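Q: I'm writing up a methods section and want to include an example of the input and output format. Could you take the sequence below and give the corresponding predicted structure tokens, formatted cleanly so I can copy it straight into the document?
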Amino acid sequence: MRILHTVESYLPLRHGMQEVVSQLSERLAKKGHEVIVATSFHPDRKEAMINGVRVESFRISGNMVNGYGGEEGERQRYQEFLCGGGFDVVVNFAAQQWATDLTFPVLDDIKSKKVLVPTGFSGLYLEKYRDYFLRMPSWMRQYEMNVFLSDTYRDARFADEHHIENRTLIPNGASEEEFCVEYPFSIRERLGISKETFLIILVGSHTGMKGHKEAVEIFDRAGIRDALLLIVSNHVRLPRHDHLSWKERVVKGMRYAHHLLRNECPDFCTTAEQRYNNKKTWRANSKSLFIREFSREETVRAYQEADLFLFPSRVECSPIVLFEAAASRTPFLSTDVGNAAEIAQWTGCGSILPTMNDAKGYAHADIEGAAKMLKELWCGRERRKEMADAGHAAWRERFTWSNIANQYDLLYRKLCGGGDAHS
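A: Here is the clean output for your methods example:
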């Protein structure tokens, strides 16, 4: 089959959506399919072929609601590519970004089988997206299939409310090539901590939405000792917009500066280590905070050596980090965000922190209640082992990327062969 995956950004950028699309694309290419990824131009992407996947870059940014940016003629070129590329299957990953939003107006002109993977509808409760989501049911019905990562998250509930029947469930996963490897180094040794230190990790970028501040507060208030909270995160960097005109760069720069003003995470994380590590109560109880930027191999090794994964995130769809925790035999505590509760149930590897939601749909951990749960798991060695073993077994059986790619392969084959692809 000739398969087109569309996604807002792709390698060399690394984030949750890129991980999903690259894992699926590369594995489907190894099965003998011709896989093309349509995505945004990136100045550091030097090759058109990445691990057997052809990458077609477009100098486009933005979305239907906020407006599009990029070079003149690129939007038309993209839509012509969708309609005239001779694909067997066209798959749009994530709504509310240009690669999907520019597909909606030409759905009738695309003769390929079409699949939408909504990935959460993060703007569903925002007023500026009201008209967008009023039109969404009509768009969803024009696809041969809508793939949801969860049966319970807001996009799946939206489909229920609007009687979208052309749908199926395929969850996220974690890579066996990464998590079944024994790495020849120790993160504990590199950090200078003992095997007896209770190591808690959080993996998530400095967006202000991954719960860094909340994790530190929970760790601070939990009555535990001989423990280290390790936050693994990339530094916040100013995005490059070499492909934009100078006017568009000015607008982008202003929006980015405004984002940083609203995002307390960089400032908090910059000073948090020194501020908390110097607290008398922390020193008395041998508690420490480290905030580090790791390579991917170091990050996976940190998962493997951790005693607990703490994830008080504010917004998610289907967080890959929880599948990665299960893959690494690391029990997790997470806010009731995205389908975290569903993942905890599927894997038996996690528990859900007491969570409140604001008017915009963002989750907020109850700090005192979360600290109590953290202490209970810190004390409960046998309980942690039960969760770790259950999570790893469930991952091996259902949630490896090989298993997930096989499900997409079967779906695409059924759509192209006229079979029943509904779950």
